[in-house]
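Throughout this chapter, every protein is written as a compact record of paired, labelled lines. The reader may check this reading against the record printed directly beneath this paragraph:
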Amino acid sequence: MSHGERKGRLNVVKFLELTFSVACLVLHFYSFNDRDIMTSFMATGTFTGYIIVVVGVFAAGVLMRAPIHKRIDIFFSVLGCALFVASGVFIIEAWEFSFRTRTRDLALIKASLSIVNGVLFGFDAIFTFRDK
């Protein structure tokens, strides 16, 4: 695989991570009635923090043509995987026995999207590790 193919694939993955993070944050705004304050703090911090991290990786790698080191990228990807999956699980746990309302549906969609984004961060870490 050439450097251009790798760079293009990783840009697509980073763009998907950013898109899912923004979608989670928007859904979090519309379903912010979480029962547990720690779940709210963790979800808000994860969603906003990783929007900042992924935009920073884009700014460094694409705009300034100074790609971030492989170890740092793997660290952020593994940490993002853990935080997004944990946020999704905690949100599901906080909302699973609630009455069926629009807010509950949005919260469960947010949790599912968060877990999917966590899996995407995990794949990003694996792909980055395997690249030479």
